[in-house]
Amino acid sequence: MPDLLSHAFIAFTICTLLSLRYNWLTGEYVTVGMAGAFIPDMAKIKLLVDAAAVEAALGIPFNWLGIHTLGGAFVAVLVGTVVVNRADRRRVFMLLSLGAVSHLLADSLLLKASGRSYEVLWPLTQYHPPTPGLYLSTDIWLTGVTGSVAVAVYFLVQYRA
Amino acid sequence: MLHSRVGRVAAVCGLLAILFALMIGFGMATPAPELGDYPDGNALAQHPDSHVGEAVQVTGSVIGTEPVEIAVEYEYTASGEYHSGTLTVTVRNVDIAVDEGESLQVYGTFGPDRTITAENSVRVPAVNYMAMYIVSALAGLWTLWRLVCGWRLNWQTGGLCRREEPLRPIQALHKRVQEVRA
C-alpha cells in the first residue's frame, strides 16, 4: 500500500489491542509499533535518490527495495533498538519488529498479475509467495477500513480502561 | 558497550553498513522465474532477446488499444553507464477493457518483436499520487508527533528514553482554554 496511513493504522490497531493484555504497553510504546510500520517504506527514498543513479555513481548494483524485505527491515529494527535506552531495548525491539512485519505482511497480500507476491523473506530466499490479491496498492477504500477499525479499537480500549 | 554515545554511534554506523551491503546484494539479484521472480521492464530493456519465450510481468501505461500497447518505464546500469527510458510493448490477449492513459500490469509470455501474450492482466486505476503522498506525509507527522510527545533524547548517552510525563499538548491547550473561559 503506497499510503503509509493504512500501515500506521494497522500497527496502531495491533499495538492498542495488545495493550489490553500487557499493562506496560502504553501510548508511547504504541508509537514505537507505528514507527516500525514505517521501516519497509524507507525504500521510498528512491523517489528522491534514484537507485540507478546510485548504481552509476558506485559502479555496483544497488536497490533501495532491499530494505523492504525481512533482512533489510531486521537490520533497520536493530538500528532503532540500539538508539533507545537499555531498559527499553527488549520492548522496542519487539514492537519495531511487530510494526515492520505487519507492513511486510500487508504488502504481501497485494494483487499482482502473476499471482505471486514479492521476495518478502529475502535474503533467506528469493521465493515470491503466492498472493491472494486482496487489494491494489492504489485502493483508497483500504485507508478508510483500516482507519475505522483503528478508531473503533481506540474507543474500545479507552472504554475498557 | 552500547550505552555510551560513542558506542551507539559506532553500532549505528556498523548496522547502516550492513543495511547498505544488503541493498547492494538485493540489486545484484537476477530474475528467477522458478521462484516467481519474473523478469520486469528493466530486465526486458536490458536483454530483450534473452527473455523470449519466458514468463514476464511488466507494468506500463496504456498508449494504444488496437492492439493494446503499453509504455514500460525502465532504468538500469550496465558497465557503469546509466540507461533509462520507456519500452513500448504490444500486449495480446488482454481480457479486460482498457483505455489510454490507464496503468496496466501484465503477466504473460514474452515473444519476439517486444510482444507479450497475456495470461492475466490487472488494471490499475489512475490515482492522484500527490494526494497519496500528502496522506502518507500526514501519517508520518502523526507518528512523529506521538514520538516527540512520548520520547526524549538523553544528550549524555545519545539515546532515546521515555518521558516520565508524556507531553500532552492538546490536553494542556484544552485545559488552558477552559481556565481562560472560567
C-alpha Rg of chain A (nearest Å): 17 Å
Supply the helix-strand structural class of chain B: alpha+beta
CATH topology of the largest domain in chain B: OB fold (Dihydrolipoamide Acetyltransferase, E2P)
Bin the strand percentage of chain B: 25-35%
Could you tell me the radius of gyration of chain B in angstroms?
A: 26 Å
What is the ordering of alpha helices and beta strands of chain B?
Answer: HHEEEEEHEEH
Assembly of the depicted chains = heterodimer
Instruction: Show unreliable segments of chain B.
Output: none
Largest interface: A-B, 64 and 64 residues
* Count of discrete alpha- or pi-helical segments spanning 4 or more residues of chain A: 6
Helix content of chain B: 25-40%
InterPro entries (chain A): YdjM-like (IPR007404)
Keywords (chain A): Hydrolase, Membrane, Transmembrane, Transmembrane helix
GO molecular function, one term (chain A): hydrolase activity
Transmembrane segments (chain A): 64-85, 92-114, 134-157
Give structural notes.
Chain A: InterPro entries: YdjM-like. Chain A: This is Metal-dependent hydrolase. Chain A: It holds the Pfam family YdjM. Chain A: Keywords: Hydrolase, Membrane, Transmembrane, Transmembrane helix. The complex is a heterodimer of chains A (161) and B (182). The two termini of chain A are 32 Å apart. The model of chain A has no long low-confidence stretch (mean pLDDT 92). Chain A is built from six helices and no strands. Chain A has one domain (2-156). Helix content of chain A is 55%, strand content 0%. Chain A has helices at 4-18, 27-38, 51-58, 70-83, 89-107, 141-160. With 161 residues, chain A is mainly α. In chain A, helix 1 (4-18) runs antiparallel to helix 2, helix 2 (27-38) packs across helix 5 and helix 4 packs antiparallel against helix 5. With 182 residues, chain B is an alpha+beta fold. Chain B is built from four helices and seven strands. Chain B has a five-stranded mixed barrel. Chain B has a two-stranded antiparallel ribbon with strand order 6-7. In chain B, strand 6 and strand 7 (159-162) form a beta hairpin. Chain B is flat, with a radius of gyration of 26 Å. The interface between A and B is large, with 64 and 64 residues.
